[in-house]
Amino acid sequence: MSAPLQLTFLRSAAEPGQLPHSDAEVAIVGRSNVGKSSLLNALAGRKDLARTSKTPGRTQLLNCFVHRDGGTLVDLPGYGYAKVSATDRAAWRRRMERYLVERDALVMTLLLIDGEVGPTKLDQEMLVWLRERGVPFTVVATKHDKVRSSQRQRRRRDLAAGCDVDPKAVVWVSAVKGVNLDRLRDLVRTWLTGT
Ligand SMILES: Nc1nc2c(ncn2[C@@H]2O[C@H](COP(=O)(O)OP(=O)(O)OP(=O)(O)O)[C@@H](O)[C@H]2O)c(=O)[nH]1
Ligand SMILES: [Mg+2]
């Protein structure tokens, strides 16, 4: 078993320039309600580190967490929340893109895809954008517990194909049931500390 990541909330920032210095940062990106904040809590073995909600669009800022053994994690606002005005959505998009392009410390982007739903059109746009900009990313599928075990192999294949990645490269987690959290913790630790 891999010990929970020792994370402490540091600050929320509206702009990437307001984030602290970091030697290595991992960002969590994905559509609203995909389970970003839940995953962060699960990785840390905490219930209340990042705020989760049944109301999508709750996380509006770049939320920065410090890892005790080195590096930082950032929980980004989710995209695709319908009830946000077009102006707000455009502002969010600029902020997100600036963050991903300008943040020198960024070593890995976890792109979360709902394992029950599969990649949406917005997820696929995000993938294209990340590839075009050369931003390093790993596809993390969420909500493993919501898919019947008899369907999982096929779902993994379809999800990976929809993202144009190798099925073996997709880490499929459940924040609720704790599935594959050890594997993801080890990966995150390696990205953050290089060990
Ligand atoms: N069954 C199940 N539900 C999950 C899992 N992870 C998250 N959820 C649920 O999905 C909903 C959204 O989770 P959040 O973690 O708040 O999602 P988010 O991506 O941070 O959403 P925003 O902050 O709005 O962008 C909540 O109702 C969670 O309880 C999971 O592994 N399994
Ligand atoms: Mg959130």
Key traits:
single chain; binds magnesium ion; alpha/beta; about 200 residues; Rossmann fold; binds guanosine-5'-triphosphate; seven-stranded mixed beta sheet; 7 strands; globular; 5 helices
Describe this structure in words.
With 195 residues, the chain is an alpha/beta fold. It has one domain (7-193): 3-Layer(aba) Sandwich (Rossmann fold), CATH 3.40.50.300. The chain has five helices and seven strands, in the order ββαββαβαβαβα. Strand 5, helix 3 (121-133) and strand 6 (137-142) form a beta-alpha-beta unit. The site of guanosine-5'-triphosphate has 23 residues, from helix 1. The site of guanosine-5'-triphosphate (GTP) has 23 residues, from helix 1.
Q: What is the rounded distance between the termini?
A: 17 Å
Radius of gyration: 16 Å
Please, what is the CATH homologous superfamily? P-loop containing nucleotide triphosphate hydrolases
Secondary-structure element string: EEHEEHEHEHEH
User: Based on CA inertia axes, which overall geometry fits?
Assistant: globular
**Total beta strand runs:** 7
Q: Please give the count of helices.
A: 5
Helix fraction bin: 25-40%
Largest sheet: 7 strands, mixed
Strand residue percentage: 15-25%
- Major sheet strand order: 1-3-4-2-5-6-7
Mean pLDDT: 92
- Decide which structural class fits the backbone: alpha/beta
Count of domain modules: 1
The low-confidence runs, each spanning 5 or more residues with pLDDT under 50, are none
Bound molecules: guanosine-5'-triphosphate, magnesium ion
CATH class: Alpha Beta
